[in-house]
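Nucleoside-diphosphate-sugar epimerase, Labrys monachus. Tokens?
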Amino acid sequence: MHVFVTGGTGHSGPYIISDLIAAGHQVTALARSDKSAEAVSALGAKVRRGDLDDLDGLKAAAAESDGVIHVAHRQDLLPTGGLDAVAAAEQTIMLAYGEALKGTGKPLVTSGSIGSPGWEHLGRPATEEDPTLSGGEKFKGTLRVRNIVETTVLGLAEQGVRSSVVRIPTIMHSTTDNAGFLPILIGLAKEKGVVGYPGDGKNNWSAVHARDLAAVFRLALEKSPAGRNWHAVADEAIPFREIAEAIGSRLKLPAVPIPADELMLPGFFGFLANLVKLDVAASSAITRQTLGWEPTQPGLLADLDNGHYFPAS
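Tokens:
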């Protein structure tokens, strides 16, 4: 299968490209700069120069391919428009793919988020069958505003696109992770001199290794029926306090509770204040059974023991 991939130089992109090629697929990856072009070429992918704001180019690339995996985001819009602008731009891209792939039955696999659909307080782990809840004005500026992207993608199934969404856990970890939540939390701990956790720290986060995540994207491309959600979740529920304590033990810093009120929590965590309070355990049982996915890489806490997050000074 000839697959068009965006986001090929991000955290997950190189793992996705490598996994696709190892499975026998041909890959063309979008590259905005010479540096990005060199990186995706080194992975064995063909290069298509272009930008996410070039909708005609994206449509042409999708039409020329046998399927699309889209994991890129307009991060450049964050400073001026925040998550609302990023989500609006991404929805426009999904609609463009829909125009290019309408009636073809070709697969379109895009990234979603375990943290954004709005499932907190379910009283059980969220599953792939739990629908993405609506966003709207009330949720502007929060992760939930991006839900419109997921619902748009799934809606393309009605137009003859074999569309699906891979929901990604709060933490994606790997040896090449230098900008995800773990490095941010580790950097914050070094700055503050303590590792904080919100309230009693019993709120659950989920996690996956980037290499295992890549396999879910490939399997969804190959096997997913139209209009389905998948959960790339290896660690289904890790209390935030355990993550904080694991970081603290490696930095030799104490893990301490941060009162979850308007003053203390944002004062400590800054822009992460809303994220660290997320409590969303998530199951991947349906993904494992239906797609035949089984994680093979170290879990989050085991990966923290591998040393790459805490290089010797």
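The two ends are 45 Å apart (CA to CA).
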